[in-house]
Amino acid sequence: MLKLNQLIKIYENGHQAVKGINLDVKAGEFIVLVGPSGCGKSSILRSIAGLEAITSGSIELDGRRVDPIKPAARDIAMVFQNYALYPHMTVYDNLAYGLKNRGVEKSLIDRKIRRVATTLKIEDYLDRKPAKLSGGQRQRVAMGRAIVRDPKLFLFDEPLSNLDAALRAHMRLEIKKLQRELGVTSVYVTHDQVEAMTLADRIVVLNQGEIEQVGTPSEIYHQP
Ligand code: ADP
Ligand code: ADP
Hints:
Layout: E1 2-10, E2 16-25, E3 30-34, H1 41-49, E4 56-61, E5 64-65, E6 76-80, H2 91-101, H3 106-120, H4 135-147, E7 153-157, H5 165-182, E8 186-189, H6 193-199, E9 202-207, E10 210-215, H7 217-221
Parallel strand pairs: 3-8, 3-9, 6-7, 7-8
Antiparallel strand pairs: 1-2, 1-4, 4-5, 9-10
Helix pairs in contact: 2-3, 2-4, 3-4
The structure holds adenosine-5'-diphosphate (ADP) (2 copies).
């Protein structure tokens, strides 16, 4: 479904952040990328999303190369740790923005938003601006904005790291539930082992821009 072939990312200063990564992600699979700070997790995610141009290699989605095309045309949604909501827009308009840009019909946008808002329990906040929301509510809106687009692939860059421990535990279960309900394909970056163990079908351990290990949570964390 998602295929990374010999992916290399070298930044302008010459730093090689990703050193020839190969990865195959199956449809419906939840992949978690872990590894020490600076090992290249974000660079990989941002390359897949198209926020960084890759240096060499290729990225395929459903058999089609996406690395040469614009981020908006990749059919990929990304959820960030800092939410990246538009502060001047209401929750409703934040959710609608991407669909409006694609010229989706208003009544269809409205139906999609209501369904996602119910799923994420944000239906009472649709008229509010992000500043009036709690961290957990903002994170739900950020997830809603990704879900409402119905993308082929979800990318999560440490989406829960700004939340307190209780909320993080709660949202972790919610993400797990969404994953089951929607059957989405995801690549999820975290440094939290509990998150990785709870959410992952497969964990990819990175070290200095290379894949060190790939396996199920029990293979990675319960070695003899
Ligand atoms: P992680 O997400 O695992 O913490 P990153 O992908 O953010 O790792 O970074 C990988 C390496 O690339 C780090 O050494 C980081 O300092 C470097 N790096 C990240 N972004 C840039 C950039 N824009 N320019 C130069 N080096 C960068
Ligand atoms: P326009 O882009 O023409 O200004 P609006 O943003 O006013 O259109 O929205 C038009 C429709 O979108 C409304 O009829 C309603 O169905 C839906 N809508 C917009 N904002 C909200 C909201 N805060 N809560 C519920 N529905 C909304």
